[in-house]
Specification:
The chain is α+β, with helices and mostly antiparallel strands. The chain has 5 helices and 3 strands, in the order H-H-E-H-H-E-E-H. Strands 1-3-2 form a 3-stranded antiparallel β-sheet. A hairpin with a 2-residue loop joins strand 2 and strand 3. It starts with 7 loop residues before the first helix and ends with a helix.
Length: about 100
């Protein structure tokens, strides 16, 4: 049996890096990390992009585990997933030697 040389930590870091790979997602993360939560409708007012495009960016952040959403009809409330946010910061610092 061949052992995978890529660690789980490296896979997580790559997933977080992919989520950080677009300026809109960085904006959303900056915004959410500086406040408790935000509604998706409020984000569409701040960003000059289509709602469908914003939804794709929010999905990418959710898939990476960096944010979480809670449905409060008719809107969705988004917050930073603090545990994964802290893990991402720790992994980047470790990998970059900071």
């Amino acid at each position: 049996m061949k052992i995978d040389p890529i660690t789980e930590e490296q896979k997580k870091l790559a997933r977080y890096a992919k989520a950080f790979g677009h300026p809109v997602r960085l904006y959303v993360l900056d915004l959410l990390s500086n406040q408790t939560c935000c509604y998706s409708g409020d984000l569409t007012e701040d960003l000059p992009i289509a709602k469908s495009t914003l939804s794709q960016h929010l999905k990418e952040l959710k898939d990476a585990g960096l944010i979480q959403g809670q449905i409060e009809a008719p809107k969705i409330k988004y917050c930073v997933n603090k545990e994964n946010w802290e893990e991402a910061q720790r992994l980047f610092k470790k990998h970059l030697g900071i």
